[in-house]
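Input.
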Amino acid sequence: MNTTPEENPSQHVTRRTLISGSAAAAALAAAGYAAPAAAKPKHGHGHGHHDSATFTVLGTTDLHGNVFNWDYFKNAEYDDSAHNDIGLAKISTLVDAMRRSHTYPSPLLIDAGDTIQGTSLAYYFAKVEPISRTVIHPMARAMNAIGYDAAALGNHEFNYGIPLLRRFERQCDFPLLGANAHDATTGLPAFPPFVIKKVKVGRHLIRVGILGLTNPGIAIWDKANVEGTMVFPGLVEEAAHWVPRMRRAGADVVIVSAHSGADTSSSYGDALPYPENAASLVAEQVPGIDAILVGHAHAEIAQRVVTNIETGRPVVLTEPLRWGMRLSALDVTVRKTRGRYEVTSVSAQVLNANTVEEDPEIVRLLRRDHETVVAYVNSVIGTATEAMSAATARYEDTAALDFINVVQAGAVKDALVGSPSEGLPVLSIAAPFNREAAIPAGEVSVRDVAGLYIYDNTLLGIRMSGAQIAAYLEKSAEYFKAVPGPGTYAAGDVTNAPTATAPNGTPDYNYDVMGGLDAPLTYDIDLTAPVGSRIVGLAYGGVPVAAGDQFVVAINNYRQSGGGNFPGVTSAEVVYNAQVEIRQLLIDWVSAQGVIDPPTFHQVDWRLVAGSTPLTITG
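Output.
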């Protein structure tokens, strides 16, 4: 494999620009962009001092299958409390404006991963009508049209298996970079580690190296798809290996595109020797890097400067917000001294996509795909006798999560027939992924069900003891903040407790509710008790659960592989793993049953209490 690719100078300046110069300037100003003095256009001449040149690198990350400003689960235009807009169609307009305002040279455009998973649009072209030689992935079509120069691999690129990822890779006109995605047999890079792009600024020709790094957590989160095929060493280790090689290959500037957050937290505890969020460590510990486009954390960092320990030089980090809400812009100035370019300054900022219209060319290219998916997600597959909502699922027992648990446990129980585990009681876990998820009374569509389970997780069954069940629930109960005694509390005052691994608060998806299939699993969570001693009265079918009791637990692949660092699951015996997506199981269950009748499966099996007194929680 050619691990040191070099490409010709970018020709993006010749791509259509649907926006005039004055309109481009106005659009960028509205989006919050302020051009540094050295980067203002000179209409074909070098920028700034005759020995200096400035160029721009634009960046996106965590696009997660968003092309349009559309919420497929709501069947409406996307909106949130901050009134962000999403999608590549808006990003394309911003990119066009930057190219129009930066007449010479055209900015480079890179991405930091998590591209092909996350929306119904992405799911449809992975599972319903999978991409092929004749079916092009909408993200490939859009990113090719916009003119990306490179993209790093994200962990969610591996959700649908390596064969589909390879098909997507072949459909892209730009390289997918992954220096730390290695072939498990040969130890060699399974994807190009880096690419070197030539940027012409007046009489200057600057070689810009782009190194792609992905997340070691792939080995845990997508174990079923990658085990024995690929391995994922640490970002710091691989950057230290490749950056000197990029410099020797002629890179004047080194930009890292890293699918790894800037803050050094990790969701998988001690399961891997490499941290999940290591972008700042890469900047600090690996000399020779000028800037890092950060991804994975779904955070917004306009600019953060980290000092490299060895060289004392600043390294600029920037992370645009997820789903195409923001576009990062890195302005890099170099000076030529004795025949070599040296970076003299780097600055970064983010542009807001909600200030521009969608690019009509991207809309035209993807309209048919979008309409196909809208029709798919709105197709009616059953009815519900009453409405179910997940709005309160993080602090009280709801029919919505019981429904997920009933379907998961039922699928596992059916699969155990004829196996040594047949006859064991089956439990199931589910998390309140989406507070806005709701299934209405009456007709139920694909999107109603899909909104209840927004991740592409697959289902497994594992054997656990009664002691392990209790320990698992104690871990889950870390999600709650302590209370002094009985009373009425606001939801925000008891949920999302900070922990050592989640200092900003435990996310909803790391709180699990556990339920039984043929008999109820009942328990109280005492918020006046210390963490680790909160589960009270754990019983199955009214009988206290003993330490040695044996159960089969229906669990998703994220949890089973170590996501959230729950105890007892990664080493538990796997008794079922058919690689079936839970969301599809829910859709298939409704299609087959025709009717969702919550009273047949929902009752209050767990409570938040103070001592023995139930707490009242208000939304």
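The radius of gyration is 26 Å.
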